[in-house]
Amino acid sequence: MGKHIFKNFFPLFLLVLLLASCGQVGTIMPEAIDEEVDICEACTMMVQDNQYSAQIVTTNGKVFKFDDIGCMAMYINDNLPVGQLYARDFYSHEWMEVEQAYFVFTKDVETPMNYGFLAFSSKTNVEKFLAESSGQEMMWNQVKETMKERSRHNENEHTHN
After folding, report:
1. Element containing residue 157 per DSSP (H, E)
2. What pLDDT score does 62 carry?
3. Phi-psi sector, 116: left (phi>0), alpha (psi -120 to 50), beta
4. Residue 155's pLDDT is what?
5. What are the phi and psi torsion angles at 102 (to 5°)?
6. I need a labelling partner for 83 at 20 to 30 A (CA). Which of 5, 37, 98, 100 fits?
7. Looking at the whole model, is its pTM more than 0.85?
8. Are 60 and 85 in contact (CB under 8 A)?
């Protein structure tokens, strides 16, 4: 009877093992920042390994690094890359997926390109920041829209001079 159970469940066990390992293959993860060589894709400034940096990792493994969350939003608006987006938590500096992040727009913190966007891993951290500083909570789509409006405004200024 023991061989019969093994014979029936072994293929099922192999299938479960195979499916479990498939989730691990091809996982898109952010790369470490190398401050000596990494250049922002949007503004061409050096990327610092800090709480303002952001990344896009495309589905084919190409990595685009940014020194400011605003730079990444502007790049996405202009180029529409397909991949996973990452930002750094303002407090812990840990990478997090942009879709799970909370954002604040503030003039109280000088970000590398002075766009003023900060990312947080939790609503609690947003509330903590806003209790100590001024700012406006935003979702990722609002960050992108703000950068789109800013770009339009800059284009209009240049065409009317």
Report:
1. helix 140-159
2. 94
3. left
4. 62
5. -115, 145
6. 37
7. no
8. no
